[in-house]
């Protein structure tokens, strides 16, 4: 057999084995979810093939500490239920529940995006809770590792100088713009400067682990109306960024946030309209 043909067959065999191994790893990854689910949702039924929720995430992450995900939840026309909560879970992370969002108003559809840390090959899950108590799940298997222990992008002194600073920007056609002109645009991006230390990162100088310190609460209101509140954990990335849909009313948007050290941060913005 010519050498070229043997080489092609060897490459094909290797590729087939790699695909098979990856598929087996992905299939076996459900074992973690089976043991995790009762701790988060008890014995409640979760529909995992729901057309109501779509989760988008990369198959292979470019940066395990900054994995972008987006979630869309849309109820069909005539459905009188509303979306009340959204829980983000990274199965294989040390603290799997990344964040839980609670929504105000009568939300029949919503979009939400953020960046997560992924510590090893894992399913990422988004579970929406409707007003009647039903749970609907979207899931994606993501290949990434080391996200929770990756070194912080800034040293601690630099990070603490800007901690709590906020930016609120509108999103239009995938581009960022001036949020004061958001009277007809229904998506905003909120970013909070914060190192969001996971407790698993090592100080590169002292070689000691940096204590966990992260944003664990956010509340966004439009006037007196709640847009969403969030309870967060160590799986949210450094400098948490949340892109969210809302119904613009022209009223002032106010953001309150807090971290695990008891710091409180706030910001506000008056959209046009």
From TrEMBL:
Q: Quick one: signal sequence residues? A: 1-24
Q: Per the database record, which ranges form the Sulphur oxidation protein SoxZ domain? A: 179-269
- Which segments of the protein form a coiled coil according to its record? none
Gene3D superfamilies, per database record: Immunoglobulins, SoxY domain
The source organism is: Ancylobacter tetraedralis
Q: Which residues form the Ig-like SoxY domain?
A: 39-148
Q: InterPro entries, alphabetically?
A: Fuse-rel_SoxYZ (IPR030831), Ig-like_fold (IPR013783), Ig_E-set (IPR014756), SoxY (IPR032711), SoxY_sf (IPR038162), SoxZ_dom (IPR014880)
Q: Would I find Plastid among this entry's keywords? A: no
Question: Would you tell me the protein name for this molecule?
Answer: Sulfur-oxidizing protein SoxY
């Amino acid at each position: 057999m010519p050498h070229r043909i043997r080489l092609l067959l060897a490459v094909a065999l290797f590729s087939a084995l790699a695909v098979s191994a990856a598929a087996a790893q992905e299939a076996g990854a459900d074992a973690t979810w089976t043991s995790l689910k009762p701790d988060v949702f008890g014995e409640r039924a979760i529909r995992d093939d729901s057309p109501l929720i779509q989760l988008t995430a990369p198959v292979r992450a470019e940066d395990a500490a900054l994995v972008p995900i987006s979630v869309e939840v849309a109820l069909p026309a005539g459905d009188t239920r509303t979306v009340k909560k959204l829980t983000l879970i990274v199965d294989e992370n040390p603290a799997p529940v990344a964040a839980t969002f609670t929504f105000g108003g009568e939300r029949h559809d919503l979009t939400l995006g953020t960046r997560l840390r992924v510590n090893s090959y894992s399913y990422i899950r988004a579970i929406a809770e409707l007003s009647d108590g039903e749970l609907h799940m979207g899931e994606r298997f993501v290949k990434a590792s080391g996200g929770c222990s990756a070194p912080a992008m800034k040293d601690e002194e630099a990070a603490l100088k800007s901690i709590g600073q906020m930016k609120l920007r509108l999103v239009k056609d995938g581009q960022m713009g001036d949020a004061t002109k958001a009277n007809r645009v229904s998506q905003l991006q909120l970013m909070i400067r914060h190192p969001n230390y996971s407790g698993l990162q090592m100080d590169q100088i002292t070689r000691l682990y940096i204590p966990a310190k992260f944003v664990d609460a956010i509340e966004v209101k439009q006037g007196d109306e709640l847009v969403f509140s969030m309870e967060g954990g160590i799986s949210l990335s450094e400098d948490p960024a949340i892109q969210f849909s809302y119904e613009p009313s022209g009223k002032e948007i106010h953001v309150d946030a807090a971290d695990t050290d008891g710091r409180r941060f706030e910001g506000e913005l008056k959209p046009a309209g």
